[in-house]
Amino acid sequence: MDSIPLIRRIDKTLGSLKFAVILLGLFALFMIVGTFFESYYGTDFANRTIYKTWFFMLLQFGMFLSISFAAFQRLPPKKRLYGFYTIHTGLITIGAGSFITYYSGVDGSLLLPPNGPSREVILNEDVLKIRFPDEGRLVTYKLPYTGFSADIAREYENIKIKKYYPFADNKFTWVNAKGSYNANDPIHSSTYTISNPMVSQDFTLSLHPESTEFKSNLTMGPLTVHYLPKSLGPCFAQNNPSRLILWDREKAECYTPEERNISIQKAKSGNRFLVVKKEGSGIFSFFPDVSPWPVDKDMRMQRGSPLRIFSKKLFEDKPNLFLFGESTAYFEKEEKEWLYSKLDQNIPLTLPWMGFEIVLEKHQTAKVPTFIPEKVLPIQKNNEIIRGKVRALELEIQGNPYWVTNERPVQLLINGKKAVFYLQKETLKLPFEFVLTKFKMEKDPGTNRPASYESFVRLFSNDGPQEHHIYMNNPLKHQGFTFYQASYSQDQQGNYSSTLSVNVDPGRPFKYAGSLMLVFGSLWHYFLNFRKRKKKDITPLVAGTEEFTES
Amino acid sequence: MIQFILALIFTSAITIPSNAAEETYFCQDSLAKIPIRQDGRTKPLYVHAKEAIKYLTNKTSHGELSAVQTFCLLSLEGMGLKNNINLMARVDHVDVKEMLDLNEKENQVSFTTILEEAPALRREMRKEMGPKGIQTAKSKAIAKLINQAGLYKNIVEGQNWLLPAVTRDRVDWIPVTAFLREEKIIAAREKSDKPFQYVINEEVKKFEDMKGDLHKLEYNYSRANLPVVSLILTLLALASLTLFKKFTVALGFSLATILIQLSLISIRVFISGRAPITNMYETVMFSGFGALVLSMAVGHFKKEKVFLYVGLMYNACTLMMMNFATGMLSESISPLVPVLRDNFWLSTHVTTIIMSYGALALSWILANTVLIKKKFTGLNKQDDLYYSELIYTTLKYGTIMLGAGIILGGVWADYSWGRFWGWDPKETWSLIAFIIYMAILHGRNTTWISPKRFIPLVAGAFMSIMMAWFGVNYILASGLHSYGFSEGGAIFLGSFFLIQTGVIIISTIDMNLPWSSSSEKNH
Known about the structure:
The complex is a heterodimer. Chain A is of the alpha+beta class. Chain A folds into four domains: 3-105 and 508-528, no CATH class; 108-119 and 427-504, no CATH class; 126-177 and 369-426, no CATH class; 189-366, no CATH class. Chain A is built from seven helices and 32 strands. Chain A has helices at 3-14, 17-41, 43-51, 54-73, 82-104, 233-237, 508-528; strands spanning 106-112, 117-132, 137-142, 150-156, 159-175, 189-195, 200-206, 217-220, 223-227, 244-248, 253-255, 264-266, 272-278, 282-286, 307-311, 320-323, 327-332, 337-342, 349-350, 357-364, 368-375, 379-381, 384-387, 390-397, 400-405, 410-414, 417-443, 450-461, 464-471, 476-478, 481-490, 496-504. In chain A, strands 1, 2, 3, 26, 27, 28, 29, 30, 31 and 32 form a ten-stranded antiparallel sheet that branches. In chain A, strands 4, 5, 21, 24 and 25 form a five-stranded antiparallel sheet that branches. In chain A, a hairpin with a 4-residue loop joins strand 6 (189-195) and strand 7. In chain A, helix 4 (54-73) packs antiparallel against helix 5 and helix 5 runs antiparallel to helix 7 (508-528). Chain B is mainly alpha-helical. Chain B has three domains: 2-212, no CATH class; 225-335, no CATH class; 349-354 and 364-523, no CATH class. In chain B, 66% of the residues lie in helices and 6% in strands. Chain B has 20 helices and eight strands. In chain B, strands 1-2 form a two-stranded antiparallel ribbon. Chain B has a two-stranded antiparallel sheet with strand order 3-4. The relative contact order of chain B is 0.07. The chains are: A alpha+beta, B mainly alpha. Chains A and B meet through helix 2, helix 3, strand 22, strand 28 and strand 31 of A and helix 11, helix 14, helix 15, helix 16 and helix 17 of B.
């Protein structure tokens, strides 16, 4: 019968006041740390590192045990302790309610765009979704709920899931290309800085087919920047009278009609046209002032043809800057001619627009510019995350590394089959559908501050459509779900979208009942059995408060 | 147009003053009561002018001129009427002073200079904040100057003073420059020799017939300076009690304080149309009042005079803050954010929480008084027990209300956001405070917390309430890089924590040393 004393000892420890005080102290300590984390690193980080971690849950479970054992130890009931029993039963009930909510509740948000229906509730779990469109298959992998990076090292059908960063920033990097390319393939990329005394901007342009984040053209206010293959540059340098340039994509070479004695004729419509012969490919007809592509005999455009034509005339009216990696060309309006110049690294070149100059910062002939996620500690400012907004997951597929982020899905061919990888929040499909019919926003008179915002929604369920009005402090309850007006946003055109928070809380009645017990138990405990201490020969604290004399 | 206006203004004067700049035109204090629209609310010009001039200069008047006169004259600049007011903003940050060519001793700069330097200031602020937009003490100082200059510009352009224009069934609020139209003034000249006042008064009359005259009540409320009256009454009560040992007189003054505070609170409720607990100023006001009422009630039933002292002492603290810490507590009444617009929950949840802060403040005053008393004249073991019991009484009220308040908050959150608990810093800190008090109350029944330790612990525990009350707004909300303690609230809290910790350490550290008087009594 050795075990009895041990059980008793556990019982005694768990129900003891000292154990309760230690737990209360720890609980307070974690919460204090949590609020500072929340303030510096944001709500999500505090949840992931403190409030929703196993040790904080364990602590709460410890308190649950302490409360229960303390009550059991004081049985059979004594009248003096009725308040105490009520308080502790109340706490246990609240704890049970919270556990039920945690286990089977739903807490998410529903975005209602200005037009079109929505029924997908966004939940809080991070998941990787892999869609195989050809097979109509969707795979969901649940990611760990962590505040720091996590090594996953799991494999699914030759897809290795490696590392997960819940908070990351995109870091600009040059990486080696995954595919192999011929020597004269136009795959170069460059970074430039364009600046005048007022503004300065860095930008990277790329021709590399693997570059998904960086394009080959860019508009900056009235200026359009075009990034073209290096070998096209010399043709821009020629101020040939026709101002036409032909580009042979297969050979990566350019020439002017004048160089090859190609005659330029005028069509009935007044547009110029020319016929070009390319060895091994046949004859191409161009209307260079209409399209860069050749046309066939039915006047259909042949996109994807190996020959293209540029009419520089089209780029003379507005500011257009052509960049060829390490050289540049633009039309000088005053001189009425095209200027072509070499760009040396770090030496600025003055442009004819608004005092701008351009500097080549970096030129890469074969590497690919990309953003690689880098794990960071998030920073919160004014209730907004200003660092660490990106969630990123590293995958290894067919020996190549890939980063999927919440900002950008990855699309691949695996053994000839298409696969799309999304990093997103888990979603829940509602058994009914909403349409936002109207969003009403009232402002405080004479100001831009919102005074109230209200959603008018149409709900489509099996019983037909119903109209509802949801606003602050007036939620909608439907089929066990409760919808609350949470927030809103406005797009460029001024249309409002509304965000509802969606909630299912089966623990609710427990929490309410427990709360009531707690409050009444405390009143009972304190006021039904207070002791009165006789005030006799007590030193007064301050003058004028000596023995109370009733006169 | 300017000549015309000048001619109209001086129509009753015998000669046009040689220096028109010293003229106050029609800017008299009689304008103080007229309704204006600002910050989403109708209020008397007096209140807005006072707040605006205070914001610009840290003072509520400008030399000989009252705030209303200053505001009025500055607004008339928008119509081309000159004045010789050179309004100055206060600059304290060394780097900013340097930017504005001020020497070390100077700390004022005219708004004309700030407006001229505004682009440079803005550039410097952006540079200081960097690409991530992180605020520093310097960037905040510049931002404040830029905001002040923005308001100044708005005023001198005549755009800030909005007057009512009543047309049949609606009121439009239009800037003073558009309000005092030429033809209106000419027409008014037929009827009165003070055409400007006449035009304004006529329109105000129409407005009041339609919308009532709540702004007049607010004007009288603001003029009455009830917080000052309450503070004087509380101090008189405290003096009667502790210096002159006249308990009944003290009781009389306390009742008078309660009456004045009750009217202060009621008028605010009437003006704002909501429970009086929606900003720091109001919560401080309400907790002081509530604590005094509670302490008098408890003192009466417990037949213990010391409660009156405790209540008065705490009330005096809150009234001091309301009257002197005006940089931290703004007394202005402004519209609420949408989520708080529910008078039922506001008045149940927030009132309960604030009352609990008041009750716990009583335990805090009592504990500190015991600690100081013990240090200076000594208390015996029986005293310790007795006063622990009194502190325990206040804790009972405080913790029940705090617990109930947290639960009510949870119910409100569940009702309007769909969750009981979301680990929001405000709710978490009120739970932290509650848990700390619970740890003390549970520990009191173990050998760990004897009455001797109980009292300093209770005194210290109030720091968690201060953190929940002020710290969440002044320390946590401002977040990263703001522990330069540059703002009033953070300095206040920092000094509070420092002083409280100091009191606890000094009063407990050498309690058992042979020369301390308390040890004499204990042995």
